[in-house]
Amino acid sequence: MPEPKMNLIDGAWITGETTPNINPSDISDVIGHYARASADQAEDAIAAAKAAFPSWSRSGPLDRHKVLRAAADEILARKDELGRLLAREEGKTLAEGIGETVRAAQIFDFFAGEALRLSGEALPSIRPGVGVEITREPVGVVGIITPWNFPIAIPAWKIAPALCYGNTVVFKPADLVPGCAWALVDILHRAGLPDGVLNLVMGRGSVVGQAIVDSPDVAALTFTGSVPTGAALAAKSAELMRKVQLEMGGKNPFVVLADADLDVAVDCVVQGAFFSTGQRCTASSRIIVEEAVQDAFLARMTERMSALRVGDALAPDTQIGPVVDENQLNQNEGYIEIGKAEGARLVTGGERLKRETDGFFQAPALFADCTNQMRIAREEIFGPVAAVIPVKDYDEALAVANDTEFGLSAGIATTSLKHATHFKRNAEAGMVMVNLPTAGVDFHVPFGGRKASSLGSREQGRYAAEFFTTVKTAYTLA
């Protein structure tokens, strides 16, 4: 058996209990054995990050640039290898895995550049002879807790800015996908980070995550995951008066107007709702369609969905890989039954699929005749299940789109400049797409939403500085 992969604490690889990492396309394929940290080890990691902070926070911009750029270069050079690892452990297709890996490299490259663009302001005071300087400083130890659905991109867009702005990090990845996390930390460790600046503590959220959340030495906490967990983290962070950044659920609408190019609309829905097996917080799960084109839209969707190839994530012809694990597949199947019981019509899909290997395969499911009050239209399923909701006109479509507790992403298919402009302004979402899938965003612009989807400042791009730094105003009498 290959050597197990250990946690990194204060620059040393630390042993402990291990658990197998299983391929959801083939449960007989054990990718490797990865350590699970204890609560004591998590506390050691926090202490190491705290001790490393004074030196790293005062390091020069070129030092940070070199580390981040070296990481970007290695990730890109190993994109095929790392993309294959991602596909094996999470279930994305190989093409999606490689694409996500390239995105991680781009994120590190972007923040390598930002390390050389750190800036402030010098202003005259209203008082004669007094100067004012406004600068940004790192906040301290940052706790990073990431989900399983983007096992290298989401860690990248949290770790890269944290290090860029001079923070130290305690990183806990999702228990289901330790492989990409370990590889990323190994790359950064070998890129020259001082001991204690980046610490990896893999393991259970109830043990490792809780230790991070409970620690008063964690100055800022960034989390991507479920709404209930996020709410608990926010409450604890408020108690400790720490900065918190939460990215949580989505129930994203995609509106199809009668004037839309239906080929464009179908492409957007298929990609947004079903690619990455629907396991994206930005996935289109509510498809709001004007009644005048509903039948034609459903016919084209059924035709496209019947041709989708579901299978082993590593197979070159696979378009949709497996669900991440048995628990998620059971949850998806439960929602299929809920939809039927609520009176929705299952147009196609939803069933488990048998393939050559024993994995968690499911046919993408499309419901019609839905209302926006059904559970399948209100609760995040996080699987390849979409509900079509008919509406009379644009005004009703917008009202239905906004009638949700979430507000991450929203999309519309239309050839009307009037409706596109109005929707961009009035959709209650952090990100709006016109004739594009709701899932799929650039790495250099802000990411985040409203309502129950997000809390705190935006992620990615230059807006990341809002969370990973604190503003200082200094006055000097000349």
Q: What is Rg?
A: 23 Å
* End-to-end C-alpha gap: 68 Å
User: Which percent bin holds the helix content?
Assistant: 40-55%
Dominant shape: globular
Task: Give me the number of helical elements.
Answer: 15
What characterizes the major β-sheet?
A: 7 strands, mixed
Task: Kindly describe this structure.
The chain contains 15 helices and 22 strands. It has 478 residues and is of the alpha/beta class. It folds into two domains: 7-248 and 453-477, 3-Layer(aba) Sandwich (Aldehyde Dehydrogenase, Chain A, domain 1); 252-434, Aldehyde Dehydrogenase, Chain A, domain 2, CATH 3.40.309. The strands form six sheets. It has a seven-stranded mixed beta sheet with strand order 14-15-16-13-12-18-19, sandwiched between helices. A six-stranded mixed beta sheet has the order 9-8-7-10-11-21, sandwiched between helices. A hairpin with a 5-residue loop joins β5 (121-124) and β6 (130-138). α2 (61-77) packs antiparallel against α4, α3 crosses α4 and α4 (94-115) runs parallel beside α5 (153-164). It is globular. The N and C termini lie far apart (68 Å).
